[in-house]
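Progress against Task 2.4 (sequence-to-structure conversion) is shown through the following example record, which the project officer requested during the mid-term review.
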Amino acid sequence: LIRLNRLVQNNYFKEQYLTNRLQRFAQIIEQSPISIMVTTIEGSITYVNKRFTQMTGFTKDEAIGKNPSILKSDRTSTELYTQLWTRLKDKEIWEGEIINQTKDHQEYIEWTTIAPLYQDDGQVTHYVAMKEDITKRKKNEELIQNLAYYDQLTLLPNFSNAIALYFRKFS
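Structure tokens generated for the chain above:
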């Protein structure tokens, strides 16, 4: 009877431990500062975290069951999507920059990593996309580039840029 009691207690504590771990992992994913989206291999969204809803303006209910194309803008080339799907069909990870749009059609630039999710037998069942809004970073890079190469008063190329443009034109 004592052994049975210890066995029951051990199983209970193991179950509690595993339950707590699962809850912690769920919190990590839900509260991640990176947008996370999970889709079926057919492209139907099955999960989005809180950051996804903040970034896109779509609620969980509006996104789940839809295709990720609800975010698609016309500024990302079809070649990029072809490369993306080729990599995923080959069971490879894809990374790249995508210009998407929010629910209210505001464009934003995101750095996206998409990876296949495997069952124990190696079969791909889902894809997970981790997305970071890099719009501000890209605008800051453009501003720095502009400050480095153009006079802010006249908007003409600065001296070093003018010389480089001259040599490019006449070389």
